Amino acid sequence: MSTNSLLSILVCLLLYGFFTKITTAFSIKEATTDDLQLAFQQKHLTSRQLVQFYLKEIRRLNPLLRGFIEVNPDSLYLAHKADQERKANAQGSLHTLHGIPILLRDNIATKDKLNTTTGSFALLGSVVPRDAGVVVRLRKAGAIILGKASMSEWAAFRSTFYLVVSVEEKNPYVLSAGPCGSSSGSGISVAANMVAVSLGTETDGYILCPSSVNSIVGIKPTVGLTSRSGVVPISPRQDTVGPMCRTVRDAVYVLDAIVGFDHYDDATRAAVKFISEAGYKQFLKPNGLKGKRLGMEKTKEYGQDLFEAAESLKGADKLLKLVVANLNKLSRNGLEELVRKHKLDALVTPYDLRRSSDISTLLAIGGYPGITVPAGYDNVGVPFGICFGGLKGIEPKLI
């Protein structure tokens, strides 16, 4: 057989996919949840290999970026377990998050070998009574808890003096730029491909800001849509748990997994009415913005001062009721009136380090949801996002 004939046969075999399994290389970097699940199904990847890749990236990048406080020592075992479940077609093994590693902000409790410190040495070695409500749901979905994300101690809300577990985090795009917000480790780690999906918590800007400056997607759900049980609190009125991922689709997959009633958190009882019964995936539409009426936030309406000391409100029931009534009034006469008066589908604004408190505070005081998505980079290369916000339960429209 001539050399030309042999080459012709090889070319035909390549064209018809004969060598596909040998020549196709799956890249984990920047892979979405859908990409990873497809790779699992086609046997191009296992959960164990995926965890091994992330552990290698953590060892390589975390000494500089400081996105992780701690890695789950059982992560490889959990990955092997997920692979065995998938192989046996076990119940739940087809869930979108099955076998997918996820990073948790360090104020979200896990009843395992991981610490839950809220970034403080004061809680190092403490024992939690149970998994946080959202962690229970993630484990049920088959997700692998990969570790805990770095954060400012006590979410920078207890004192001006800190003894921190985490070291100063770095923005992977511009190291000298701040990572912004106390869910910084979650944002950094997703942006730097040390994990595909993560959870953050927000009181005022803690999900939206670090998502924005790390060029990822962050969803701050309506307060009560996701459980705060097992989450070290700041404000029960404003605290909420939400996903921080590279794409809206991935964030929606995580949101679908963690929403729901939890008898340990009364706020979830009131928010059940806002949950989409068929899930949020159905609202992922490429032309979702078509025909929508958006309001642009131009100026800052009002601010919200940091409580100087939580203890000062003990016994001050009248003052506390006055503050809450004032915040409710601001919400009714502010965003709610604005949306109804102008028949808006959502409020939209750029979201960067210079404007981080504008929209987040507006959404925070009313318990309203918001989503930030990557929008571009400033003149020195720091990412910024665009934030869509609206009234309670508007997640389907925002998505």
From TrEMBL:
Looking at the UniProt entry, the stretches that span the membrane are none
Q: Does the keyword Cell division apply?
A: no
Keyword Amino-acid biosynthesis included in the entry's annotation: no
- Which InterPro entries would you find in this protein's record? Amidase_dom, AS_sf
The protein's UniProt keywords, in alphabetical order, are:
Signal
**Start and end of every Amidase domain?**
50-301
Task: Provide the leader sequence positions.
Answer: 1-25
- The molecule here is called Amidase domain-containing protein
Pfam families, A to Z: Amidase (PF01425)
Q: Give the source's domain of life in one word.
A: Eukaryota
